[in-house]
Predict the 3D structure of the following.
Amino acid sequence: MDISIIEMTKEYAQQISSWKYDGIYSFYDHNDSNINGYMDGTHFACVNNGGDLIGYFCYGNDARIPTLEDNVYDEDFLDVGLGLRPDLCGKGYGLPFFLEGLNYGQMRYKTKNFRLSVAVFNERAIKLYTNAGFYIKQEVTNSYFKNKFFIMKCDHISC
């Protein structure tokens, strides 16, 4: 998969805000979310050689979820959030896409310690993240949706 991570544009943000996922994954629909939120400097577009949007990454506080539990997010890890275009999910693109986002985060933010939040029901993503070297650190409750999430970490350069 030959892809690049670039600065977010309003056009890409508009595309992301209209994505619709199938079945239980519709939880991740952005439902025409605030496009300006993608323009905050922490969101990046992932495109193929033709410039077609295939996904996005965000880094830092915006990648975190609100939790009922305290002290979930220590400062030694860079939070990463991501989304792969719905029609590409489940087709084997996930790992190279995810690793490209980690490589970009490592170069841009000078870290090898990553953390992410993933809904407990999302077994497909959990398997992918585990295969990339992440481990489940704890289970938390999203204070907005009241559903369970895993906080996963990777603290080595090979992830």
